[in-house]
Amino acid sequence: MNLVFDKLKKIFPELNKQVITVSRILEAFEAHNVTVAELPLDNNGYYVSNAGKEFVFVKYALNHYLLHETLSHEASHVFGSSPECAFLLRRFEIEAETLSLIMMMPLSDLPRLNRIKHQLDAESFDLLKRRNKINEIWQL
After folding, report:
1. Per the structure, how many domains does the chain have?
2. Are the beta carbons of 106 and 24 closer than 8 angstroms?
């Protein structure tokens, strides 16, 4: 996990210090020639690499929270995960899920969010529980 985290930190130096916003993710995609398109998908998003070109497809009309989570997840695939390990699909997805949560909820925000966790909406509270688990496991 640390190797993947370090790879992603090269793209987003502010990783785990502040939230990696949707606009910041889109800027990184553009800077690395990753095409992003909204489509009527069954899933929230997909990352595809084909003939040397990279694409991120996201489900059309996702709410902001789901769009942020989906783009964070797909950015973790694009910039963090090792394609040579893609045959380990479950690991590939765990890495992307972990890094997307770190992008959305940096370590520096955890103390404050844990203090106000009972004031959070259900989606944010679920995100915080998952993010706390990542901190417990990997200290990230």
Report:
1. 1
2. no
